[in-house]
């Protein structure tokens, strides 16, 4: 699989809640931080989204927003509108004037992800992904959202499973867009995959994670000099090439340990360590405990 597919598979996203959000007139709502990825797609009208410590951002019809970890935020019909506290729930929400047809409609919700590798998501993705309908075609996201809204409004057998799969597709589609936030690339996996040379190197790492990669070897895959590759990789990804490789290997190791059923020798061989001893030493250095202790800990429990 490609790096993006690998990331989604490792995070094992599944639905926590989703709902239709509507509003009319003047309104505002404030939510506390949530330790889960959040998303929203504006169906009709528009609103203003203000993340904690950030300037308000206008969301127009067709815009999609993904927050890998949802901070405290406010959402309002206009900047400066009074906000009331909101409580996350899976039921449809109406803001503002309760009478009359809404002038604002949005699909909103959140995901649960594999908590073992949740830090991986935060390290490899920007804090906010905003796909603007005015800058790119969001038709595919809108069609997926229409199916999600249909499942939210219906009570059909198997609805939870279908809704979960649709939200996974929505997440992949949003990340596939690889937008550039704030007019410049944000260090992380999306920035790396936007660069064709770095994308080749990242693809090679994910295709052969057990290989004895060196910076020089990855530079050859990228078609660059060693020094130029190392500098460009560090700028785009926020870490050195071998550090990224080590982090990815540890993510795969945590995943394997949380599932169980594999010996340390097998895990070590699959992710590129010469022996179980070498793997255990590297794991303890990075995780602060032995692989066995991690596998027995609550942190390794599969959701």
UniProtKB/TrEMBL annotation:
Q: Where are the coiled-coil regions?
A: none
Q: Which UniProt keywords apply?
A: DNA-binding, Transcription, Transcription regulation
Name the InterPro entries for this protein. AraC_lig, AraC_XylS_family_regulators, Homeodomain-like_sf, HTH_AraC, HTH_AraC-typ_CS
A Pfam family this protein belongs to?
A: Cupin_6
Instruction: Spell out the SUPFAM superfamilies in the cross-references.
Output: Homeodomain-like
Q: Does the keyword Cell inner membrane apply?
A: no
- In this chain the HTH araC/xylS-type domain maps to 199-297
This protein is called AraC family transcriptional regulator
Q: What is the lineage of its organism?
A: Bacteria, Pseudomonadati, Pseudomonadota, Alphaproteobacteria, Sphingomonadales
Domain of life, source organism = Bacteria
């Amino acid at each position: 699989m490609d790096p993006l597919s690998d990331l989604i598979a490792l995070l094992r996203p599944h639905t926590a809640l989703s709902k239709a959000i509507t509003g009319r007139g003047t309104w505002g709502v404030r939510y506390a931080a949530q330790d889960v990825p959040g998303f929203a797609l504006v169906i009709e009208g528009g609103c203003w989204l203000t993340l904690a410590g950030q300037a308000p951002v206008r969301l127009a019809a067709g815009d999609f927003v993904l927050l890998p970890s949802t901070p405290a935020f406010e959402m309002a019909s206009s900047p400066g509108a009074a906000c009331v506290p909101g409580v996350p729930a899976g039921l449809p929400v109406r803001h503002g004037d309760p009478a009359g047809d809404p002038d604002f409609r949005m699909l909103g919700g959140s995901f649960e992800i594999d908590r073992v590798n949740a830090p991986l998501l935060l390290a490899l993705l920007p804090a906010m992904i905003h796909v603007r309908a005015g800058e790119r075609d969001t038709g595919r996201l809108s069609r997926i959202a229409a199916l999600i809204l249909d499942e939210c409004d219906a009570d059909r057998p198997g609805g939870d499973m279908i809704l979960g799969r649709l939200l996974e597709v929505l997440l992949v589609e949003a990340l596939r867009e690889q937008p550039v936030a704030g007019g410049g690339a944000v260090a992380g996996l999306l920035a790396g995959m936007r660069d064709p040379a770095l994308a080749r190197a990242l693809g090679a790492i994910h295709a052969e994670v057990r290989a004895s990669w060196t910076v020089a070897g990855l530079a050859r895959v990228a078609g660059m000099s060693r020094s130029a590759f190392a500098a460009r990789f560090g700028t785009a990804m926020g870490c050195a090439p071998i550090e990224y490789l080590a982090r990815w290997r540890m993510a795969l190791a945590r995943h394997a340990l949380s599932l169980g059923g594999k010996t340390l020798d097998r895990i070590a061989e699959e992710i590129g360590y010469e022996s179980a001893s070498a793997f255990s030493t590297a794991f303890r250095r990075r995780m602060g405990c032995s692989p066995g202790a991690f596998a027995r800990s609550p942190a390794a429990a599969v959701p």
